[in-house]
Each structure stands twice: as structure tokens, then as C-alpha cells.
């Protein structure tokens, strides 16, 4: 049996597949299998994946005959096929350093109480050019230097202090999980469109601890075809976050105060998404429900929404005039650390 099962779920990422798969095949740690999945891509992904599976005995390919509608359905499918003790969901548009598995396998081997081990990531664009280290995002979000060093953190404590407010794990490609922990948690929720990974980690950390290495071993690609880009402007993702916050609040003592603070933050995220949403009856109904929920945590929410619409209108004017980028650069110089690009 392989030590690690590497699951590569793909949808229309033909441009990145070869780099992704080669970065796995070139690992210094070699005791692994690769499970390739394809969710009915309409590009040439299928041919690329099929070619790799026929040329390498470590690789198997399981294409869908019908689109699943959820990346987390694909995660669960991959895990159901996995033979390894550890799981790596290597997203098809990312890539990694050759010692990624070597380092994270060692972390889980040395810490049997840990269900999740992950590394620091670099954000890269479509060309693979580094945008910034995710450590900058973490410092901006949490105002903490915790990720400057390696650590092992109690899972419930990580949920109460970190996951209530944000997902400190940027993407699955930088994560190695115990299969036992994944299965005992119930797996990823296939009904979720965006936050199924965040919710999964929260469930696992109810019973397991979290290990981290500050080494940059993962390259997380940011581009227009990511799931986050496609689904952010939709009221349903905020319902997912509310479910997560309620889950942590209801299962960890002394977390209600932090949960209330988190809801206040999320109400601001929701208000900021409204100008980008494509409105129809379903969106109107869903957003009306969210307004009733969030207004309990942010009493002046209505005026905040009006203000956001005015700012969005002004932003569109600045874009049209070609002034947005230089003004952002000036803002960053005048207010260092207050605003972040990614």
C-alpha cells in the first residue's frame, strides 16, 4: 500500500496540468499513488490525463461521465479510491517544490495527534510569477506573527482563534491530511460551492491538532478560472460561512464571543459583495434572509450597503479614467499594512 494518495481533481485546467503532474512525479518522497479525476472538462484535459495514466503505473484516471457540480464531490470521490494513509488533494492548477511530501509526511509521522499538516504558500499568477507570500495575507488578516515559525497547535484552539474568523489554510494543495481524520470527520460537504475545504478543516480539528511548517513548498495559482473567482459573488457562500461559525460555536466552549465578532466581520464581506452579484428572484430572496441575520450584528448595515454602492460607483469611474492603479499605489504608501492587494 502507498504511504500517500495524491488526488488531482481537474476541471478545464489543460494549461497547468503538465506542470502540476510533473511537480508530483518529481517528489523526493516517492511512496505514493496518483489518482487523476476529471469533471467533464471541455478543453483537452482528458487527453492529457489519459496519456499520463497509460504511461505511468503509479497513476490511475477516473473521469466523470456527468459534471458533479461541486469540487468537494470530487474530493470525496478521490478519497473513496485512495489506498494511502495520508491524503494530498493537489489542485490541478497549482504546483509545488520537490520536497513538499518529504517535509509534510515527516510532520505527520512525528505528530500522530495531528490530522492536518500544511506548509506556507506563494501566490502566483497564470504565468507562475510570484505575487506574494501568503504569510503577508495571514499577518494582514490576523495581525499575528504565528506563521513565521513552525508549530503544532491544538485543533479546538485553532478553530476558536483562527477558523472562526478566516481560513488560515490558503488552499488544499499545501495540505497533507490523515485519511483516518478525513473519514471520521464525515468528509467534505458536496453541497458547498466554495467553503467546503474550510468547513472540512474545522470538523477535523475538533478531534485532531494542526501542524505547520513555514517553508514555502506550495505555489497557489490565482487566476480568473478559479472556483473562488467564479462563485464569490453569490449569497449562498455566506450561508456556508454562517453554518461553519455555528458549527464551531455549538461544539467548542467559550467560543460565542469570538463567533459574534466573526459574524460582524462576515456581514461586512457580504455587504461588499452585493454590487458584484447578478440579481434574480433567488438572489433577492437569499440576500433578504442574510440581511435579517447580519443586521443583528451590524445595526447600521443598511447605511453601510449604500456607502459600498457609492464607493463601487466611484471605483468604476476611476477604472474608466485609468486612475485606479496609481491611486492604489499611493494608498499603499500612505497607509502601509492597512490595505492588501490579494
Helix content class: 40-55%
| Chain-averaged pLDDT | 92
Question: Major sheet: size, sense and barrel closure?
Answer: 10 strands, mixed
**What series of H and E elements makes up the topology?**
EHEHEHEEHEEHEHEHHEHHHHHH
Sheet/helix structural class:
alpha/beta
Number of strands: 10
Shape: globular
* Count of structural domains: 2
Q: So how many helices?
A: 14
CATH superfamily of the largest domain: Spore Coat Polysaccharide Biosynthesis Protein SpsA, Chain A
State the end-to-end CA separation: 40 Å
Residue stretches low in confidence (pLDDT < 50, at least 5 long) are none
**CATH class bucket of the largest domain:** Alpha Beta
Which CATH-level-2 architecture of the largest domain?
Answer: Alpha-Beta Complex
The name CATH uses for the topology of the largest domain is Spore Coat Polysaccharide Biosynthesis Protein SpsA, Chain A
- Percentage of β-strand residues: 15-25%
What's the gyration radius in Å? Answer: 21 Å
Structure description:
This protein is of the alpha/beta class. It folds into 2 domains: 225 residues, Spore Coat Polysaccharide Biosynthesis Protein SpsA, Chain A (Alpha-Beta Complex); 103 residues, no CATH class. Strands 1, 2, 3, 4, 5, 6, 7, 8, 9 and 10 form a 10-stranded mixed β-sheet that branches. β2, α2 and β3 form a beta-alpha-beta unit. α1 packs parallel to α2 and α8 runs parallel beside α10. The longest helix has 21 residues. The mean pLDDT is 92.
